[in-house]
Amino acid sequence: MFDSLSDRLGGVFDKLRGRGALKEQDVRDAMREVRIALLEADVALPVVRRFVDQVTEKAIGQSVLRSVTPGQQVVKIVNDAIVEMLGGDTTPELDLNAAPPVVIMMVGLQGSGKTTSTAKIAKLLKEKQGKKAMMASLDVNRPAAQEQLKVLGEQVGVATLPIIPGQQPTEIATRAMQAAKLQAIDVLLLDTAGRLHVDQQLMDEMKAVAEISRPQETLLVVDSLTGQDAVNVAQSFAGEVELTGVVLTRMDGDARGGAALSMRAVTGKPIKFAGTGEKMDAIEVFHPSRVANRILGMGDVVSLVEKAAEAVKVEDAEALAKRMEQGKFDMNDLRMQLKQMQSMGGLGMLAGMMPGMKKAKAAMAASNMDDKVLVRMDAIIGSMTPKERTNPALLNAKRKIRVAKGSGTQVQDVNKLLKMHMEMSKAMKQIKKMGGLKGLAAMFGK
Length: 446
Ligand code: GDP
Description:
By secondary structure, the protein is an alpha/beta fold. It has helices at residues 3-16, 24-40, 45-61, 70-85, 114-129, 145-156, 169-182, 200-213, 228-240, 258-267, 288-296, 299-310, 314-325, 331-344, 349-353, 358-366, 371-382, 386-390, 397-407, 411-434, 436-444, and strands at residues 102-108, 133-137, 159-160, 187-191, 217-223, 245-249, 271-275, 283-285. Strand 2 (133-137), helix 6 (145-156) and strand 3 form a beta-alpha-beta unit.
C-alpha cells in the first residue's frame, strides 16, 4: 500500500540530497511536492494544508545535523509529522472497562467491511483476551446480512443472537442486551445496518440503537480504497454519533494511503484496527509509526537520523576536539565517549570511525566490551572524585580500592578502564598530529 506516495516523496528528497543545509527555500520546494503527493494520495485538502504548514514550520526552524543530508532530515521530519497525525506512537486499544455486557457498536456504509470486521474483532477478543463475546446483526435492509454474520460467527466460534424475522433494529438491540445479560456475555458486538449512502434514516436508527445499548465503543468502519469519499463518510458519521475509533479495511489492497491520514484528522479519533484481507484473522492493531514508515518507505533513513541526533552531537564532538587540542582528555571526556557509544548501540563504533583508534578499540574488544561493560565503566567513573576525574594519575592503589568498592566492581576493572583511557589519550594525541580539531570535526560531521 501507499506506493505512489512513497515513490513521490522519494523523488522529492532525491532532489534535496547533497545540499549543505536546510534552507527555507529548500523546505518550501520540498513541501510543494509533498503537498501534491498527499493530494494525489487522496488526502483531504484541509488536512493537507494543515500538515504542510506544520511540517514547513518545523523543518525551517530546525538546525541541521551534520551527519545526515538535508533530504534525510526532511524525511525524518515528514515521518514524525505523519506519525503524529496518525495518533502518535501509542497503540490505541479498545476500552472495555465497563460493567458487562460491554457493547461495541459497528457503524459504516454498506460494503465497507463492517460485518467482516465485527467477526474479526470478536475473534480477537475471544482468542487474545479470553472474552466471552456475542454478536448481533441489526441489518434488516440487506437481504441475508443477518445470515452472513451467523455464518461468520460459526466460523470464528462466537455466538450470534438467534434471528427472528421481521424485527426492527431497535427491537433486535433490546433483545441482544437481554440475551447478553442472561448469558453473562463480556462483550456484545452490534453490527448495524449499512446503506449505500449516508442518509438521515440510517443516522436516526443508529442513534436509537445507541440509546438502547449505550455502547462503550462506537467504531466507524471505512474502506481505505474509497479515498476522498471515506472522508465525507467519516465526517457525516462523526457529526451524528459519538465515535470512539476507526477501523480501516482493505489495507491489503492498493490503497493510496490518504484515507489513513485524513481519517484521523477529520474524526479526531484513533484508527484502532486495520483490515488486511478477507480471512478472519486478517486484522491488525493499527501502528502509526509502521504505517508512516510504509508511506515513506524510508525506515532506515528515519532510524539513522534518530541515532545521529541522539548520539553524535556535533557540539559535543567539537568541544572534545577543542580539549584535545589543549592536550586534555580526562575521565569526563571518556565518560562522554562511553555514553555516545552506548546510544549508538555499537561496541566501539565511534572508535571504529576514528583513524588511529584501532589500538583503543582492540583494548575495548579485549576487555569484552558490551553494554553491561559500558554501564560498569560509567559507574567506575561516577565513583571517582572530581579531582580524580580530571587527573586520573592521582589514582593510587588505595584510591583504586575505594573506587572499586564505590562502583561495585573489582580493582582490576578500574585498572582496565585506566588502561583504556591511556590508549585513547594516546590516540587523541595522534589525531592532533594528523590535523587536530578540523580533522576530527570532519570525521564526526560531514
Ligand atoms: P459490510 O457490507 O460493510 O458488512 O461489508 P462486508 O463485511 O460484507 O465486506 C464486504 C466484502 O469485503 C467481503 O467480501 C469481505 O470479505 C471483504 N473485506 C472486508 N474487509 C476486508 C479487508 O480488510 N481486506 C479485503 N481484501 N477484503 C475485505
